[in-house]
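We treat protein structure as text, and this decision shapes the records that our systems exchange. Below, we set out a record of this kind in full and without editing:

***
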Amino acid sequence: MERIHTRLPLFLPLPAAVGFGLSFLADGIAIWVIGLVGIVSLVPMGYAMRRWVGNSGTAMLLAAAFLASAFAAAALPTTHIISKLVLLSLLPGVVFGGYAVAMHCFQRVVPRVTAATAVMLAVSTFVVNLVSGSMPGGVFVSMPLVILLGVAAVFYVAFCEVYFRSRPPILPVPAELTLGLIAIGTVGGGVAIAAVDIPAILFSVLLVGGTSLPYRRIYYDFRDMIVFVDEAGEAIATGAKLLSHNSETRLHRAFSVFLFNEKGDVLLQQRAFSKKTWPGVWSNSCCGHVMLHESTAAAAKRRLAYELGIGKVDLKVILPEFRYRAEKDGIVENEVCPVLVGFIEAEPKPRPSEVAATRWQPWTEFVATVNDPASGLSPWAVEEVKLLAENEVFKAEYATRTNTSGAEGIEGSIPLRDAA
């Protein structure tokens, strides 16, 4: 899903072809296909909204969208229940997309509200015409119906304004929220082309062009946005990962993972030489950042799968409040970084763009390396190992899962063997 923005132009002909083909299908079949398009477009939109405003925010915004859509569907002057259901599947994408476009374009309330209402009303009318042309008997879009559609649009805009005033989002507006408008525009455009309906064709071109052309410009990957926090650990802002790591990096959320095998060896990784922070440095099994509205354990599992090809691992948070600040080559790391521990049987399959090399090393031997500057370990790994080696919860877990005893303390000095 994260790569859809790079391939969006390749997807546009498909719904347009679907729309064109609908004109040659029986009305009863065509309307079901249109409804399916609406439902499918809600999937990436729902994912993006969940990452943007969290589960509770998504539930509230979805509920309001379906309430507004249900009002509009109920106002449709027909007894054809399938048409009302199809309209109910399409309109949430309209209200999501309409408000997202306005929110991205306008910071001031009046222009934003005006633009959002206008987009929702225009596209809702277009959708009613699209559904009407694919149902037995059709529906004449009268002025009373347009007014009711406008009322539904005003309701949703007002709800969004109240919601976001009380809970301002700290991520930019996700581009995925416009996918409903793009899908409706392309499908409707295909239908209009088949019917040689010039006004509808022009509207479709305007709708698709106005939403898909800026898509790549406003798109961002949620995984590349780090979450800045205050001293209490509360999220206060977000920023692009690469740009945010500099000489004055702000405190942000992260995690560290230590993985062990049944022999009690710890998995180490050498960070890729292309990395901006600590390139080529040996460190613990895996590190990463936590996305907004993501748990630490979920972030760790996501990153383990991506970096090392390791899945289905049970992780336990051992050092929930670990925090550090370090600097190398003018780049600062400043993280609230809970430390997790897991035990695996599988061998890692490292991704070259993230990991230069991996190796297993006996835990007690590794613990002894942390006091040796020649070990070349990352500064956070050094601090974490010292804390883990003295942590009773970790030592008990380690002994239970590996049938060995945990490190009793930091003693000696054994250099880390080079495995590059």
